[in-house]
Amino acid sequence: MPNISEQKIIVVCDFSEPMKDVILHGVRMAGILKKELCLLAIRKDKGQKSHIQEKIMQTKRNLMSSLPNMQISSLLLQSSLRENMNKLAGEYNAVLVVLPQTYLKLGLKAFRESNIAFLFVKGSSPDFLGYKNVLVPVDYRKASKENALWASYLGRFNQSIIHLVYAKETDSEQLSKLKQNLIFIKKFLSSLNIKHQFIPAESNSWGIFSETLTKASEWDGDVMIFAGSTNISLIDLLIGLPEEKIIKKAGDLPILIINPLKDICILCD
Protein backbone atom coordinates (compact mmCIF):
# COMPACT_ATOMS: atom_id res chain seq x y z
CA MET A 1 0.00 0.00 0.00
CA PRO A 2 1.40 3.46 -0.90
CA ASN A 3 2.53 5.81 1.84
CA ILE A 4 0.37 8.87 2.50
CA SER A 5 3.06 11.15 1.02
CA GLU A 6 3.00 9.16 -2.21
CA GLN A 7 -0.69 9.55 -2.94
CA LYS A 8 -1.37 12.39 -5.33
CA ILE A 9 -4.04 14.88 -6.27
CA ILE A 10 -3.65 15.22 -10.04
CA VAL A 11 -4.38 18.63 -11.58
CA VAL A 12 -4.82 18.54 -15.35
CA CYS A 13 -2.92 21.48 -16.84
CA ASP A 14 -3.82 22.45 -20.39
CA PHE A 15 -2.57 26.06 -20.05
CA SER A 16 -5.95 27.49 -20.96
CA GLU A 17 -7.60 30.34 -19.07
CA PRO A 18 -9.55 28.04 -16.67
CA MET A 19 -6.33 26.29 -15.58
CA LYS A 20 -5.71 28.73 -12.73
CA ASP A 21 -9.10 27.85 -11.23
CA VAL A 22 -8.36 24.12 -11.54
CA ILE A 23 -5.04 24.59 -9.74
CA LEU A 24 -6.77 26.56 -6.99
CA HIS A 25 -9.25 23.74 -6.37
CA GLY A 26 -6.45 21.18 -6.61
CA VAL A 27 -4.43 23.05 -3.99
CA ARG A 28 -7.48 23.19 -1.76
CA MET A 29 -8.14 19.45 -2.04
CA ALA A 30 -4.47 18.57 -1.55
CA GLY A 31 -4.46 20.70 1.59
CA ILE A 32 -7.65 19.14 2.97
CA LEU A 33 -6.62 15.56 2.26
CA LYS A 34 -2.93 16.14 3.04
CA LYS A 35 -1.78 14.72 -0.28
CA GLU A 36 0.88 15.66 -2.79
CA LEU A 37 -0.22 18.05 -5.52
CA CYS A 38 0.85 16.82 -8.96
CA LEU A 39 0.60 19.04 -12.04
CA LEU A 40 -0.12 16.89 -15.08
CA ALA A 41 0.37 17.94 -18.69
CA ILE A 42 -0.34 15.75 -21.72
CA ARG A 43 1.65 16.02 -24.95
CA LYS A 44 0.43 14.59 -28.23
CA ASP A 45 3.74 14.49 -30.09
CA LYS A 46 7.48 14.74 -29.45
CA GLY A 47 7.66 18.23 -30.92
CA GLN A 48 5.66 19.60 -27.99
CA LYS A 49 7.81 18.05 -25.28
CA SER A 50 10.33 20.79 -24.50
CA HIS A 51 7.78 23.60 -24.80
CA ILE A 52 5.21 21.93 -22.51
CA GLN A 53 7.91 20.75 -20.12
CA GLU A 54 9.10 24.32 -19.60
CA LYS A 55 5.56 25.60 -19.04
CA ILE A 56 4.71 22.92 -16.49
CA MET A 57 8.01 23.45 -14.65
CA GLN A 58 7.44 27.20 -14.52
CA THR A 59 3.96 26.65 -13.11
CA LYS A 60 5.43 24.29 -10.52
CA ARG A 61 8.14 26.81 -9.52
CA ASN A 62 5.56 29.55 -9.08
CA LEU A 63 3.40 27.33 -6.88
CA MET A 64 6.33 26.14 -4.77
CA SER A 65 7.29 29.75 -4.17
CA SER A 66 3.75 30.59 -3.03
CA LEU A 67 3.16 27.34 -1.11
CA PRO A 68 6.49 26.34 0.44
CA ASN A 69 4.89 23.83 2.84
CA MET A 70 3.01 21.87 0.19
CA GLN A 71 4.54 18.89 -1.57
CA ILE A 72 4.28 19.66 -5.30
CA SER A 73 5.41 17.63 -8.28
CA SER A 74 4.89 17.70 -12.03
CA LEU A 75 4.34 15.06 -14.65
CA LEU A 76 4.43 15.09 -18.44
CA LEU A 77 2.78 12.16 -20.20
CA GLN A 78 2.17 11.34 -23.84
CA SER A 79 -0.98 10.63 -25.84
CA SER A 80 -4.20 11.33 -23.86
CA LEU A 81 -5.58 11.36 -20.33
CA ARG A 82 -7.71 8.32 -21.10
CA GLU A 83 -4.75 6.20 -22.19
CA ASN A 84 -2.80 7.09 -19.04
CA MET A 85 -5.42 6.29 -16.39
CA ASN A 86 -3.95 2.91 -15.43
CA LYS A 87 -0.50 4.46 -15.19
CA LEU A 88 -1.74 7.32 -13.01
CA ALA A 89 -3.41 4.92 -10.58
CA GLY A 90 -0.79 2.17 -10.62
CA GLU A 91 2.55 3.92 -11.05
CA TYR A 92 1.84 7.38 -9.67
CA ASN A 93 -0.66 6.59 -6.91
CA ALA A 94 -3.23 9.15 -7.98
CA VAL A 95 -6.39 9.27 -5.86
CA LEU A 96 -8.18 12.26 -7.42
CA VAL A 97 -8.08 14.01 -10.80
CA VAL A 98 -9.08 17.69 -10.88
CA LEU A 99 -9.98 19.19 -14.23
CA PRO A 100 -12.05 22.01 -15.71
CA GLN A 101 -15.62 21.67 -16.94
CA THR A 102 -14.33 22.72 -20.36
CA TYR A 103 -12.49 19.37 -20.44
CA LEU A 104 -15.78 17.53 -19.95
CA LYS A 105 -15.96 15.34 -23.09
CA LEU A 106 -12.36 14.16 -22.92
CA GLY A 107 -12.52 13.97 -19.15
CA LEU A 108 -15.49 11.62 -19.13
CA LYS A 109 -13.84 9.34 -21.67
CA ALA A 110 -10.92 9.00 -19.27
CA PHE A 111 -13.27 8.67 -16.29
CA ARG A 112 -14.90 5.57 -17.76
CA GLU A 113 -11.48 3.87 -17.68
CA SER A 114 -10.71 5.07 -14.17
CA ASN A 115 -10.89 3.83 -10.60
CA ILE A 116 -9.84 7.33 -9.51
CA ALA A 117 -12.44 9.93 -8.56
CA PHE A 118 -12.78 12.94 -10.91
CA LEU A 119 -13.50 16.48 -9.71
CA PHE A 120 -14.88 18.86 -12.35
CA VAL A 121 -14.60 22.53 -11.40
CA LYS A 122 -15.40 25.96 -12.77
CA GLY A 123 -14.47 29.36 -11.38
CA SER A 124 -12.68 30.40 -8.20
CA SER A 125 -15.50 31.85 -6.12
CA PRO A 126 -14.74 31.52 -2.37
CA ASP A 127 -18.29 30.20 -1.95
CA PHE A 128 -17.21 26.99 -3.69
CA LEU A 129 -13.74 26.52 -2.23
CA GLY A 130 -14.74 25.62 1.31
CA TYR A 131 -15.92 22.06 0.60
CA LYS A 132 -17.84 22.36 3.87
CA ASN A 133 -21.36 21.40 2.77
CA VAL A 134 -21.21 18.14 0.83
CA LEU A 135 -24.27 17.09 -1.15
CA VAL A 136 -24.66 13.36 -1.74
CA PRO A 137 -27.68 12.08 -3.70
CA VAL A 138 -28.57 8.59 -2.44
CA ASP A 139 -30.33 6.17 -4.77
CA TYR A 140 -30.96 2.43 -4.60
CA ARG A 141 -27.70 1.49 -6.33
CA LYS A 142 -24.89 -0.12 -4.35
CA ALA A 143 -22.63 2.71 -5.55
CA SER A 144 -24.36 5.08 -3.11
CA LYS A 145 -22.28 3.49 -0.36
CA GLU A 146 -19.08 4.43 -2.20
CA ASN A 147 -20.32 8.01 -2.53
CA ALA A 148 -20.51 8.08 1.26
CA LEU A 149 -16.90 6.90 1.47
CA TRP A 150 -15.63 9.89 -0.49
CA ALA A 151 -17.91 12.23 1.43
CA SER A 152 -16.47 10.83 4.66
CA TYR A 153 -12.99 12.02 3.69
CA LEU A 154 -14.24 15.59 3.62
CA GLY A 155 -16.13 15.02 6.84
CA ARG A 156 -13.06 13.70 8.63
CA PHE A 157 -10.35 15.97 7.27
CA ASN A 158 -12.35 19.15 6.65
CA GLN A 159 -15.08 18.87 9.33
CA SER A 160 -17.64 19.11 6.55
CA ILE A 161 -21.35 18.43 6.97
CA ILE A 162 -22.70 15.68 4.73
CA HIS A 163 -26.20 16.30 3.33
CA LEU A 164 -27.64 12.98 2.13
CA VAL A 165 -30.53 13.62 -0.24
CA TYR A 166 -32.34 10.32 -0.62
CA ALA A 167 -34.71 9.27 -3.38
CA LYS A 168 -38.44 8.68 -3.07
CA GLU A 169 -39.11 5.15 -4.28
CA THR A 170 -42.45 3.43 -4.81
CA ASP A 171 -41.15 0.17 -6.27
CA SER A 172 -40.81 -2.27 -3.35
CA GLU A 173 -37.54 -3.85 -4.51
CA GLN A 174 -35.85 -0.50 -5.16
CA LEU A 175 -37.20 0.87 -1.87
CA SER A 176 -35.72 -2.08 0.00
CA LYS A 177 -32.30 -1.48 -1.59
CA LEU A 178 -32.52 2.24 -0.83
CA LYS A 179 -33.32 1.56 2.85
CA GLN A 180 -30.34 -0.78 3.08
CA ASN A 181 -28.09 1.96 1.69
CA LEU A 182 -29.44 4.50 4.17
CA ILE A 183 -28.90 2.16 7.12
CA PHE A 184 -25.34 1.42 6.01
CA ILE A 185 -24.48 5.08 5.40
CA LYS A 186 -25.89 6.21 8.75
CA LYS A 187 -23.95 3.53 10.61
CA PHE A 188 -20.77 4.27 8.66
CA LEU A 189 -20.79 8.06 9.12
CA SER A 190 -21.88 7.81 12.75
CA SER A 191 -18.98 5.46 13.50
CA LEU A 192 -16.61 8.20 12.30
CA ASN A 193 -18.44 10.96 14.22
CA ILE A 194 -19.09 12.84 10.99
CA LYS A 195 -21.86 15.43 10.98
CA HIS A 196 -24.59 14.44 8.56
CA GLN A 197 -28.28 14.82 7.87
CA PHE A 198 -30.76 12.89 5.74
CA ILE A 199 -33.01 14.93 3.47
CA PRO A 200 -36.04 13.32 1.76
CA ALA A 201 -36.38 14.18 -1.91
CA GLU A 202 -39.41 14.26 -4.18
CA SER A 203 -37.69 12.43 -7.05
CA ASN A 204 -36.98 8.75 -7.54
CA SER A 205 -33.49 7.39 -8.14
CA TRP A 206 -33.53 8.54 -11.75
CA GLY A 207 -34.26 12.15 -10.88
CA ILE A 208 -32.44 12.51 -7.58
CA PHE A 209 -29.29 13.99 -9.10
CA SER A 210 -31.10 16.78 -10.93
CA GLU A 211 -33.18 17.60 -7.85
CA THR A 212 -30.08 17.75 -5.65
CA LEU A 213 -28.37 20.08 -8.09
CA THR A 214 -31.44 22.31 -8.43
CA LYS A 215 -31.78 22.68 -4.66
CA ALA A 216 -28.04 22.89 -3.89
CA SER A 217 -28.20 26.53 -2.82
CA GLU A 218 -30.89 25.72 -0.21
CA TRP A 219 -28.33 23.67 1.70
CA ASP A 220 -25.39 25.99 0.90
CA GLY A 221 -23.87 23.11 -1.05
CA ASP A 222 -20.32 23.72 -2.21
CA VAL A 223 -19.60 20.27 -3.71
CA MET A 224 -21.75 17.41 -4.98
CA ILE A 225 -20.62 13.78 -4.97
CA PHE A 226 -22.25 10.97 -6.90
CA ALA A 227 -21.50 7.80 -8.85
CA GLY A 228 -21.51 7.76 -12.63
CA SER A 229 -23.63 5.52 -14.81
CA THR A 230 -23.65 1.77 -14.28
CA ASN A 231 -25.34 0.72 -17.53
CA ILE A 232 -24.01 2.55 -20.56
CA SER A 233 -25.55 2.00 -24.01
CA LEU A 234 -24.54 3.33 -27.39
CA ILE A 235 -27.50 5.72 -27.21
CA ASP A 236 -26.18 7.10 -23.90
CA LEU A 237 -22.81 7.79 -25.49
CA LEU A 238 -24.48 9.55 -28.43
CA ILE A 239 -26.91 11.77 -26.50
CA GLY A 240 -24.81 12.19 -23.37
CA LEU A 241 -24.65 10.38 -20.05
CA PRO A 242 -26.60 11.70 -17.02
CA GLU A 243 -23.35 12.75 -15.32
CA GLU A 244 -22.41 14.83 -18.36
CA LYS A 245 -25.74 16.67 -18.22
CA ILE A 246 -25.39 17.33 -14.47
CA ILE A 247 -21.85 18.68 -14.81
CA LYS A 248 -22.89 20.96 -17.67
CA LYS A 249 -25.64 22.45 -15.50
CA ALA A 250 -23.54 22.69 -12.33
CA GLY A 251 -22.27 26.24 -12.83
CA ASP A 252 -19.61 26.96 -10.20
CA LEU A 253 -20.60 23.98 -8.05
CA PRO A 254 -17.75 21.42 -8.06
CA ILE A 255 -18.88 17.94 -9.06
CA LEU A 256 -16.97 14.90 -7.81
CA ILE A 257 -17.86 11.64 -9.52
CA ILE A 258 -16.74 8.09 -8.94
CA ASN A 259 -16.86 5.16 -11.33
CA PRO A 260 -19.22 2.45 -10.03
CA LEU A 261 -17.81 -0.03 -12.56
CA LYS A 262 -14.35 0.00 -10.99
CA ASP A 263 -12.91 -0.71 -7.55
CA ILE A 264 -12.48 2.80 -6.17
CA CYS A 265 -9.08 4.01 -4.97
CA ILE A 266 -8.90 4.28 -1.18
CA LEU A 267 -7.12 7.14 0.58
CA CYS A 268 -4.41 6.27 3.09
CA ASP A 269 -4.36 8.26 6.31
Key phrases:
2 domains; Rossmann fold; ten-stranded mixed β-sheet; about 270 residues; single chain; alpha/beta; 9 helices
Outline the secondary-structure elements.
Elements lengths: L7 E5 L6 H15 L2 E8 L5 H18 L5 E7 L6 H6 L3 E7 L3 H8 L5 E5 L11 E6 L4 H16 L2 E6 L5 H20 L4 E5 L7 H7 L8 E5 L6 H6 L2 H8 L5 E4 L11
Parallel strand pairs: 1-2, 1-4, 2-3, 4-5, 6-7, 6-9, 7-8, 9-10
Antiparallel strand pairs: 5-10
Helix pairs in contact: 5-6
Please give a structural write-up:
With 269 residues, the chain is α/β, with parallel strands linked by helices. It has helices at residues 19-33, 49-66, 85-90, 104-111, 143-158, 172-191, 208-214, 234-239, 242-249, and strands at 8-12, 36-43, 72-78, 94-100, 117-121, 133-138, 161-166, 196-200, 223-227, 255-258. It folds into two domains: 8-121, 3-Layer(aba) Sandwich (Rossmann fold); 132-221, Rossmann fold. Helix content is 39%, strand content 22%. Strands 3-2-1-4-5-10-9-6-7-8 form a ten-stranded mixed beta sheet, sandwiched between helices. The mean pLDDT is 92.
In short, what is this structure?
Helices cover 39% and strands 22% of the residues. The chain is an alpha/beta fold and 269 residues long.
> How many angstroms separate the termini?
11 Å
Structural class: alpha/beta
The gyration radius over C-alpha positions equals: 18 Å
Characterize the largest beta sheet: strand count, sense, and whether it forms a barrel: 10 strands, mixed
Counting structural domains, the number is 2
Q: Please tell me the overall pLDDT.
A: 92
Q: Using the alpha-carbon principal axes, give the shape.
A: globular
Task: Record the strand order, biggest sheet.
Answer: 3-2-1-4-5-10-9-6-7-8
Sequence stretches where pLDDT stays below 50 over 5 or more residues: none
CATH superfamily of the largest domain: HUPs
- Find the count of extended strands (DSSP E, 2+ residues): 10
Order of helices and strands, N to C?
Answer: EHEHEHEHEEHEHEHEHHE
Q: Do you know the CATH topology of the largest domain?
A: Rossmann fold
